[in-house]
Amino acid sequence: MIFESIKMAFFSLKSNKIRSILTMIGITVGVAAVITIVSMGSGVQELILGEFEQLGASSSTISLNFNKATDSDRINQEDISALRLQIQNLKYISRPVYAIGNYEAKHEDHLIFLMGVDSDFLKMYSPELVAGRFFTPVEYEDGLPSIIIDPIVANRFFGSAERAIGQEVETQVDHQILKGKIVGVINYPGGDLMNSMMTSGGMMTDEIPLFFYTTAKTIQHYFPNNNSAMGIMLMAKSPNFIDQVNTQAIKLIEFRHDNAGLGIYNSRNMADMLQQIEKIMNIVTIVISVIAAISLVVGGIGVMNIMLVSVTERYREIGIRKAIGATMNDILIQFLTEAIFLTTFGGFCGLVAGVLLSRMVSAILNFRVVLSLRWIAIAIIFSTLTGLIFGIAPARKAAKLSPIDALRYE
Amino acid sequence: MNDVLIEMHNINKTYCTGEVEFKALHDVDLRVEQGEMLAIMGPSGSGKSTLMHIMGLLDSFDSGSYIFLDQDIKRLNSNQAAYFRNQNIGFVFQSFNLLPRLNILDNVALPLIYAGEKRSVRFEKAYHVLEQVGLADWRDHRPSEISGGQKQRVAIARALVCEPILLLADEPTGNLDSQATKEIMELFQTLNQQNMTVVIITHEKEVAKYVNRIIKIIDGRVKS
Predict the structure, then answer these.
(1) What is the pLDDT of residues B151-210, one digit of tens each?
(2) Do B82 and A4 touch (CB under 8 A)?
(3) Which CATH code for domain B4-223?
(4) CB within 8 Å: A324 and B110
(5) Angle in degrees, CA A135, A141, A142, rounded to 5
(6) Min distance A402 CA to chain B CA atoms (Å)
(7) Interface predicted TM-score (ipTM) of this complex, two decimals
């Protein structure tokens, strides 16, 4: 009987093709929009979470509050040495520096972001080595002009990571020149995030700085006037110690700079950030759900409207069916099936459209979209429910018709 | 031939349309035996259609008793009545009442869906009754593609497909020309000879000559 009802519903909807399609579109558009937003949102979420997971739950950053800080508050190399000696359960501590300059290649100037790292920095983030090698202890110690780049830069200027190794590059920061040699190509874990955020900005493609890495000492040595610290990064021996390590580190730094209680130093650890991101994502999910609910209600009202019209148009058919033996339930199920068929099929089309649309967005903006099975199930279940909820009133109206009234109706 | 099929006693039916009450049936007694071919005649507004609807379990009645094959009809709820109709009564209407979007075979097979028959059985039975009324070759056509007489034969096939005991026809020839009327009435006669009970509601004298018994109804009362 169920199979029979579905076939009957399909048949009757098919004979009113345009009307059925128009009714369906209400549901389809709603579901497609939601699926697209959700899969893009999940894509962004996965990207961000992925980056953070790589950075690890046991690390944190301490940076200067630039509104309040003066030059004397800056965390220096001596602070780092002191922290390393005095803080228990501290595994790694890093104080990367950077300089912004340019790199001339193929007769064009390119903006570069030259990052000076120390040995702990690479240990903390354990980037993937694509070609060549990391810096050696001697390079860290003596500040030798060795350069590491990422695969994007390598491919762009040298064709491949392998070919980049050993190449001489000349970078310039404020008329000071650093001639360096490329020793390695690494996939910096934060690089993907940074790059995709910048490329999805679209227009500013030309302005995206290229990432070059060298040692912190090298930057201090070659560009003594142009180095800026980004703050420091800490990693505890386990996630349990990170809060303790963090607090002690800030206390010690404040003690050394005699600025306790002024709120000069900001600290964030990954667990906090993850929590914040999850909070934001939850809000996004709620907003999407509300949009989805509204669009389904609007679509559902359309379905209800058209089903009521359909019942009125088919009084005679209902009368005939009742006369030859259809029970109230038979008629109820017939009309309910039609409504559910409309919304479920509409929802399915919306799902397909949403998947295609998010794939397109993914291809254009060059980032991965994620569609979980959960959302597919939710889309289908809720569009089916919409049909059930908004189909029940017209179906009941049809089922309750008395056979002679229905037969008499012209 | 003497088994009683229908036994109606003191049936009353009043319609209320707003303020106005209209007494459609007034203490109607009616007895139909199995294998009979019966015409219920009367002018329009006489209550014959109401009687037919009550007889066919399409409408309720206010008072009186109605026994159909030992079944007290008053005790049936609407679902039971639907199944009872499906199994025991075949309807033929003046305006044919075929579903325009279904083809002939699907139209004839429709009651079997509500009887819960399997698809293969449905089409086999529907084909068989279509053959009986001589329209098996038209099974793939739509109702709009055949003549009035043919439509009524399809409707009769549909009425027969559940192998009912009673064939209830409401002005079956009202929309037909005299040639088609003759054919349809002869078909009813043939069916009656195969022991089908046939009750025809009509106001055409033409039709009356094909039946064994005539019941006249005027102003909601039976005059036989």
Answers:
(1) 999 999 999 999 999 999 999 998 899 999 999 999 999 999 999 999 999 888 888 889
(2) no
(3) 3.40.50.300
(4) yes
(5) 95
(6) 8
(7) 0.92
